[in-house]
Amino acid sequence: MQVPLLDLKAQYATIRDEVRQAIDDVCESQHFILGPHVENLEKQVAAYSQCAYGIGVSSGTDALLVALMALDIKTGDEVITTPYSFFATAGVIARLGAKPVFVDIDPKTYNLNPALLERAITPRTRVIMPVHLFGQSADLDPILEIAKRHHLAVIEDAAQAIGSEYKGKRIGSLGAIGCFSFFPSKNLGGFGDGGMVVTNDAALAERLRVLRVHGSKPKYYHNFVGGNFRLDALQAAILEVKLKHLETWTIGRQRNAGLYDQAFASSKIGTPVPVWKSTSDRHYHIYNQYVIRIANRDKVQAALKTAGIGSEVYYPVPLHIQKCFINLGYKPGDFPESERAALETLALPIYPELAPEQLSYVIQKVKECCA
């Protein structure tokens, strides 16, 4: 049996007619840059995220970048974040000449550990950027309290967590700015790159809109330098279709996660630990990834590959020991929980279209490999 890590063809088969109609609508309109489809998606994603404003952008990376630009982050500033995340989290900080300052993770949630946060703050700190990794929120209450006390902004890197909640509030709505990715592998994924920035601050929303069109308002008049961060209409039209199905897909992912949890409960396999309850149990964890923890990870992954099962290591090299960040002065051992997670974690197939026999096969093979 073959079980890919993600089967986008299976998802597409369920929405093919809707998506093709949406694409045809854009083609007939010949309006490809911004426009009504982007505006509609912005309103829908903002509402879904309990935010007043949504600004569609060209990728999740650009969502983070333009968020930092909107807060005027520049050379000499420091932004605190986690070393256990996708590269873009720290890459966008460095692109602006600012310094990424890392704080180790909580080993249960893989998110930034608030207990270690305050000691990383210096007079140059401007922003705290927690990541809601794998589909579950970071512990935001202490992060927001520390930020308020030190007069710092909070940008939520919610690339993997659209629709999840922290104590009853939607992710993206608690900080100054929330950033989503619509990369195809995300729970809400486009047919290419795309992203969204959300906020409840009207002034920030306006600045973000202007920044995404080269800082131009009105056209050809520039009060500051922005970039080309626009979400195109084709992606927005496709995402409008997919957003209608997102809740159902989330339930499917959580169903599969529950079956994994039950199957691995009596084993030595570490399973995700949902921590922050929501107003409904459907939103505490949206399982962008289902990540297990095992001591012999690389051998297990190799055995699963032989068995025809897809898996992925998120992430094999923590950001603080990436070659491009050697100038930051970090070294192996500085963030032990991040380094351990990089050696022991493995993502399994979790997509909602998994057939029962596929899920049973994955469970069987994982147990065999770990034994």
Description:
With 371 residues, the protein is an alpha/beta fold. It has 2 domains: 8-103 and 110-243, Aspartate Aminotransferase, domain 2 (3-Layer(aba) Sandwich); 246-370, Aspartate Aminotransferase, domain 1, CATH 3.90.1150.10. Helices cover 37% and strands 12% of the residues. It is built from 11 helices and 11 strands. The protein has helices at residues 8-29, 36-48, 60-70, 88-95, 140-149, 202-211, 233-243, 246-264, 297-306, 336-344, 356-370, and strands at 53-57, 78-81, 99-102, 125-128, 153-157, 165-166, 169-170, 177-181, 195-199, 290-293, 345-348. The strands form 3 sheets. The chain has a 7-stranded mixed β-sheet, with helices on both faces. A hairpin with a 2-residue loop joins strand 6 and strand 7. The protein starts with 7 loop residues before the first helix and ends with a helix. The model has no long low-confidence stretch (mean pLDDT 96).
Q: How is this structure best summarized?
A:
With 371 residues, the protein is α/β, with parallel strands linked by helices.
- Poorly predicted regions are none
Number of domains: 2
CATH architecture grouping of the largest domain: 3-Layer(aba) Sandwich
- Give the percentage of residues in beta strands: 5-15%
Task: Please bin the fraction of helical residues.
Answer: 25-40%
Named CATH topology of the largest domain: Aspartate Aminotransferase, domain 2
